[in-house]
């Protein structure tokens, strides 16, 4: 399995935001290792969905903190872009999986 990509550290972010990102990064790496060690497709898919949910929640929280003046707008923008890219990747993978399933279902025995 391909190891999880570590998050890019924020420049000039407050300590609470940096600590939250570091904790999320280390927990995501731990779950990626756990999913890889169990090896089941169900666990890997669940971990990927949890990672997408975490990225979306992180982007939402950073946006709220930036609106309140507690985080930089740049950090919120980066988190939002990462969540958007993660969502686009999940959508593309879903489309490919559905296409592959349809191809298999259309095969003649």
What features would you describe in this structure?
The protein contains 3 helices and no strands. By secondary structure, the chain is an all-alpha fold. The protein has one domain. α2 runs antiparallel to α3. The longest helix is centred in the C-terminal third of the chain and has 33 residues. The protein starts with 14 loop residues before the first helix and ends with a helix.
Assign the structural class, choosing from mainly alpha, mainly beta, alpha/beta, alpha+beta, or little secondary structure: mainly alpha
Distance between the termini: 32 Å
* Overall average residue pLDDT: 78
How many structural domains? Answer: 1
Question: How much of the sequence is in beta strands?
Answer: under 5%
Number of strands: 0
The helix tally amounts to 3
Helix content: over 70%
Please summarize the sheet with the most strands. Answer: none
Mass-distribution shape: elongated
> What Rg, in angstroms, do the CA atoms define?
17 Å
Order of helices and strands: HHH
Uncertain runs: 12-32
Concise synopsis of the structure shown:
The chain has 109 residues and is mainly α. 78% of the residues lie in helices and 0% in strands.
SSE blueprint and pairings:
Layout (H helix, E strand, L loop, with lengths): L14 H24 L2 H28 L4 H33 L4
Helix pairs in contact: 1-2, 2-3
């Amino acid at each position: 399995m391909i190891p999880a990509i570590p998050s890019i550290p924020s420049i000039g972010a407050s300590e609470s935001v940096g600590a939250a990102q570091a904790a999320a990064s280390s927990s995501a790496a731990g779950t990626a290792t756990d999913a890889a060690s169990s090896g089941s497709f169900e666990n890997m898919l669940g971990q990927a969905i949890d990672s997408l949910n975490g990225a979306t929640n992180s982007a939402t929280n950073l946006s709220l903190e930036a609106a309140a003046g507690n985080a930089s707008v740049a950090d919120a923008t980066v988190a939002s872009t990462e969540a958007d890219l993660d969502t686009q990747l999940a959508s593309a993978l879903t489309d490919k999986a559905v296409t592959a399933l349809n191809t298999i279902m259309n095969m003649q025995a």
